[in-house]
What we know:
Helix content of chain A: over 70%
Mean pLDDT of chain A: 85
Number of helices of chain B: 14
Strand order of the largest sheet of chain A: 1-2
Largest sheet of chain A: 2 strands, antiparallel
Number of strands of chain A: 2
Mean pLDDT of chain B: 85
Radius of gyration of chain A: 19 Å
Strand order of the largest sheet of chain B: 1-2
Shape of chain A: globular
Distance between the termini of chain B: 22 Å
Order of helices and strands of chain B: HHHHHHEHHHHEHHHH
Oligomer: heterodimer
Amino acid sequence: MYHVPASPILGLYLSLISGISYGLIISLLAGGLSLIYGVMNNVNTSHGAFYMMGGFLTFFAVSSLHLPIVVSVIFAFAAAFVVGLVFLYVLIPKKMWVSADPDSQNLVMILFLALAQVLQQGAFIIYGGGSVAVPRIAFGNIVAPGGVYISYQTIISIAISLLCYVGLFLFLRDTKIGKAIRAFSQDRELAEAMGVRVSSIALLSFGLGVSLAALSGSLLSSIYSITASTGWNELVIAFVIVTFGGIGSISGSFLGGLVYGIIYSITQFFFPAYSFIIALLLIYIVLVNKPTGILGEIIERA
Amino acid sequence: MKELESTDLRSIPSVIDFKDPNFIVLLAALVPSVLVFFTGRPYLQFIMMYFFSYAIYTVSWDLLYSYSGQLSLGHALPFGLGAFFTMMLTQFVKIPLVPSAVIGVLGAAAVGGGIGATTIRLKPGYQGIAILLFSQVLYWLTLILYGEEGLSIFSSTPLSLETMYISGIIIFAAAMVAVFLIENSNYKLKLLAIKGDNLAANVCGINVPVHKAVVFFLSSLFAGIGGAYYGIFTSHTDFTVFAVPKSFLPIGMAIVGGVGSLGGPIIGSAIITILINILPIWYSLAVTYFTYGIVVIVILKIRPSGIVGLFQRRYQRGSQVAKG
């Protein structure tokens, strides 16, 4: 994708740029997981499968519906919202949607894991085991200072992720529903007493979380490719980012995503084969020593 | 409080209750195992060997889940480690199969339990994914180190099918009896207290992290036994033993049979092993595992207590545990 760097400094510079773009996109996935956990108190173990589904939905829109690529990305975002709601309705008993009881949380995790397996094997049945790539939104490169080529796709992806974050932030800060979501994740019973409806808040945040996962998959599927078995790595990465940034905090997952992306790209520059393993283990060591995450105690749940 | 501590020394029950439904299920599973041996049909014997391995694997997952409340979403970690360590010892250190299997199982218990022990401090929901993280790490590590071919048994005297089958029955029976003894010992009370309420158990003087780690080591040991046997009878291991569908296998089997007792996982693994070995005759492997996922979802939706739950009212003893 890039030119071979002439010096280690240039290589690090390139790694930084690709790390920022990868980290921002993957942090959308983590943000979705964090939103779902913050509101519903349930870990969505099929989040990686929804990421994979986002890539395949975009591919479906491009190849079967012949939509333009920008429309396909929006289609994946919207379709994932609906699909997520349907799965939540069909799969999870209503009293388990929001629960602090460990038994019910475990059951929900197992149900979502089963759903992930069903989605993965379903994609296998429909599209086979081969990899699928989605066309880029724009072709070409710009030359950044230092003689570095950056593709338009990278810039557009960064812009879309930033836009999503601004949108999410404004939505949570200013709209009435966003305020309800924040109130609900801070104090469930009080929010319920003030007239916030549990089921609609849970539905909305689950749908939004799934949509963010699908958007992330749809954006990354044009930079990397997607196969039916994609998703488990991403689930693990999203989990690491969310815990690293502090569970239930959107800005935490933004920061955690950036940190993960940059560490990943830099280790990829030095140890290409082991980058995934090294990045995960490095962050895991931090996690074990500080289970609340780096921003866990400072940032409010939102 | 004092009673809990004083029961340490006699933690193994002196009398086995032979009317226990779990024991009856174990005996009922042994009968067809012996019968299949005398049919002399290799395909049936292979299905039974899959059953031995998966049953031990499922019981080890259920031991962790039902008796200490730790949900492991990456239980392929100790399972695969058992298989990989055994293969590595036969191939690189060149020691005979039996000692390498024993060392491999102990290694799987040590490494799996050690990794599990680091996850104990995490939030309950996140512990499962943390173990999944390590199984993914090992998935990629073994793919990088040994490629898609994986490792095979390196032995000058390959085992015959009969030897493997008979040793399978013995390992299966021994592991099940061991788990049965653990699950009926007084040590169980401590574990159930931890599962019910971490804080209350702590107040009662139970060292919660230590016992959680102990159960993790025990569970890794049994999963390692299942994995080592799996590696030996398939005579080959590759990176896919660490894949997430392999981690989902014992979860689904325990759910289908019913969690919380020895009988449930045995029944569940028997049913699912037959399902995933029979369906590929007509359909693809993807359809098989798709069906498996659907079966687990349906069972969880209509009968969360599994097949054993059907008999729960009749045997109050079993229900006491299986409820959780």
